[in-house]
Every structure is written in C-alpha cells, then in structure tokens.
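quick one
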Amino acid sequence: MQKVFKVMKKPWLLASLVFLMIAWIVWNIPIEKRKYGLSQHNLLTDYTGLLPERVERVIKAEAVTDLQKLVKDAIVNGRQISVAGLQHSQGGHTYYKDGVVLDMRTFNKVLAFDPMTKTIRVEAGATWEDVQEVINSHGLALKVTQSQSIFTIGGSLSVNAHGRDIRFGSMAGTIKEMTLLTPTGEIKTVNRDDQEDWMKYVFGGFGLFGVILDVTLELTDNDVYLIQTEQLSLQDYEAYFMSLLANKETAMHYARVSVAPKTFLEEMYVINYDYTGKKDDVTPLKEEDGARLSKLALDLGRQGGKLEDLFWEIQKKYIDSIDGRTMTRNNVMRSESTFMEFTKPSRVEVLQEFFVPIDSYEEYMNDLKQLLSANDKDEDFKVHNITVRYAAKDDGTHLNYAKEDMFGLVILIQHGLKENEVADAETIIQKWTDLTLQHGGTYYLPYYRYQSRDQFMRAYPQWEQFKKEKESRDPNEVFQNLFYDHYIK
Ligand SMILES: Cc1cc2nc3c(=O)[nH]c(=O)nc-3n(C[C@H](O)[C@H](O)[C@H](O)COP(=O)(O)OP(=O)(O)OC[C@H]3O[C@@H](n4cnc5c(N)ncnc54)[C@H](O)[C@@H]3O)c2cc1C
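structure w/ flavin-adenine dinucleotide:
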C-alpha cells in the first residue's frame, strides 16, 4: 500500500504507467479481419467482398461417398457445384448463382507420410500449414507454396500458385499423384503419366474439372538458409537475377520495387535465401509475429506522399537489419498475412499480378512509369506495394501464365467502391494489362476481374482448347463458377 502512495506522489511515474497500460491494451486489440464467405440471405463473397451472389447452400465436405453422391445428384437434378477452399481467390472462382458450394476446409486429413521417400498424401482441404506441422520435426519441407502457408492445397493447385522458391519449377510439378472426383462422378487416381492429362486441366483449372480429393506431394529437406539482402537500382535487376539463377547458391528469392514518390520504380531491394548446407529438424514453426507493428508501417505507406517515402525508408532499414540472419525453409514459407487486413468502409484493397518475360523487365518498368502516377496521395487509385517473384516456365498446366521464364509483379492496390471509382480502377488496370500484353506478358487469373474478355482471350489464347476440354469432361455443366461464366462460357 505504501508503494502505491509513493507512486501517486510522483505524477510523471503515474502518467508513464498509464501510458504503458494504454499502449499495451491498444497493442493487444486483435486486428480486425475482413468479413467474407456466407452472409445473411445466402449471399456469398470471396476475400474482397466485391461480387456478392446468392447461392443455394454451402455443404461442408466430409466423406468421399457423400461427395460422389452430391455430384451424381447434381447431374440428375441439373444443379451446379462450385468448390471452395479458403476463398482467397478474388473473382467469384468459388461460387455460382443459385449453386451449391462445397467447402473443402473440413476435408483436411493427412492420409500417409513417408519420410524415407519424402512424400506425403493429404486431403485437398488441408492447408500448407497443416502439412508443415507434420513434416517439420522430420526435417522436411514443401517444395513450392505461396509466400504464405494459410491456403488450402486444393485451392493453391487449382490456381497453380507460385511463391519464393526458384529451384523446383511450378507447383503442379511437385505433385506425384492425385485422386480426383470427376464431373461425371467417377473417382480416378492419376499420376503424371496419365494418358488423359487430367492433371494438366485440373491444376490451374479453377475447380472446373472436378474435386481434387487428395494429392501426394513431393517434399524436400528443411534447409537452413542464410538471408542475404541488397539494394539495387531497377535497371540492374535482370542481370542480377540471371546470375543468381545460374550461381545455384540461392534457393529462394523475392524483390520489392519502390512505389514511394521520391524513388518511384527506380529503387529495389532483393531478399535471397542462400544454401548453408545445414538441415533442421528442431526449429519450431514460427507464429505470426509483430503483425500490429507491420500493419502500422503499412498504414503509414497507405497515406501516400511523404509518408510513403518514409515507409519505403523503414522497409529498407528493416531489410538491412535481417541481412545475415538464418531461417529454415519451412519458416520462409510462412510469411505473415494478418498485417495486410484492410477493413475501411467504402474502400477495398485488391491484388493483381502481371507476368513479364525476364528480358523485358527493364523496358516494361520504364513504360509503366509513364502509366502510373508516382505520387498517388490525392488519387483514388493507389498502388501500395510491388513485389517481384520468379515464375519458371510451366508445361504442366494448360491455362498457364508462365509460357517462358517470367517475373511476376504482385501489386497491392487500393481504390474506392463508388461506381465511378471502380470504373476508374478498371480503366487503369486494363491499360496496365495492355502494356503487359505488349511486352509478351500475361496476368494472374485468381484475382478480381478488371480485365476485359478480349484481354483474357489475348493473354490466354489456349482458352478455346480449355473450353472444349471442359465441355467434353463435364458434359452436364456440373462444376461452375462466376469466373468461368464471365470469361469463357
Ligand atoms: C493475401 C493473399 C496473398 C496471396 N499470395 C499469393 C502468392 O504468394 N502466390 C500466389 O500464387 N498466389 C497468392 N495468392 C492467391 C492465392 O494463391 C489464391 O487465391 C489461392 O486460390 C488461394 O487458395 P484458397 O484455399 O483460398 O483457394 P480458393 O480461393 O478457395 O479456391 C481457388 C480455386 O480453387 C478451386 N478449388 C479449391 N479447392 C479445390 C479442390 N479441392 N478441388 C478442385 N478445385 C478446388 C476453387 O473452385 C477456385 O476456383 C494470394 C492471395 C491473397 C488474398
């Protein structure tokens, strides 16, 4: 009691304590998450909430026999099914008007794991995290994932996702075997030698060729990497990356381009994960860390202008500070995601990704400078972030975005939700897409549908064959979604 009185006699001490207490409370308020999925009146949306649509119902996937019956009943009753994982796709890829949505997240068991052959068979509703939790203590890791491990495996394969790995090629190429529930209700187990090429259409097939029930994934060692970071100017990046690829010292890599007014599309930094020769089976999987701090920094950048310059400087300092640290492969594949949450009413944040052939990068970025405004502080359409990743030439999927070795530019964009604001965003993104096509590039299909149908067809001339295959493998049009309806049907 005496101690309390002593504190009360020192007002500065009391004020500091109160300040610390308030800071602690604010720090620990959970970050508000986006609301998506099923809402009232059976309206469903995906991650951006941009395309609400009425669905008949959502069914949780549980037993294979039930799923098979669902497909057979749909054929008889003329009903449509869409398949959903975590629903982080952003263009209505997981639902269809008045259709049934199959929620795969409950279909997530590990069926077999063999550390000797470095393979794991897992149901497709499992996330990369679910797999990491089983394999980490065996010193094993995944070959190709997105930068984050929150996504379902079925959803990731159906968009043929890519991430930071630069050695193992496309995600589809890391699958040894797949069990598929076909659109005619058959259960098929197929591997890479399948004469009917199911994998080619199912992977990167946006849930239109049946339900991936389970897959056998190839694993690799959980290597320990040395983080090596560097600042570069934009015109040095092509040559820098080609020598990185040739040197074989780096396993994983990504880069970030400045979108801050002072250094707009001029400065870059790179983050490499270099082999150390060490493997790890003891380091625990990292949990989300410092989300509030990262969100605070990103919120600063979101203001644009000088604050965006400051945000870029902070990022560079942070990147410098991690140079020389080590990290396991599994942990590189578990990048934080909560700090990206954005819930401001009447505005939205979306992702877009453009792919350009590696040797077109510099010219492309110079042209892009003419298209975008360096300081978007007072504009509705804001670019917050451009990350560059490598997407190796992919022959394993039909609707492939990497027809040759490409750089993928992942863009975080914010714009308003009024009709004219969405229309403006569409105009800018369509111009951006035209520019990308002029440079021999493509764009990523799981995101919101700003691109016109004509642009889709130019970017993916193989769409016609895709459609023919869809019609012949799914003659009753059981598997449908808004993406297919909008661009291909
Ligand atoms: C914050 C954020 C970060 C991202 N980072 C990356 C990244 O680093 N690299 C990258 O490549 N992409 C990235 N993406 C895109 C992401 O990889 C895709 O949206 C992916 O589809 C997400 O998986 P999901 O479980 O949410 O799939 P969903 O969005 O639920 O589904 C995607 C597609 O797969 C189909 N599908 C789902 N499960 C099955 C199944 N079992 N059988 C058949 N079809 C199925 C669906 O019908 C749909 O067409 C990111 C997206 C967000 C929002």
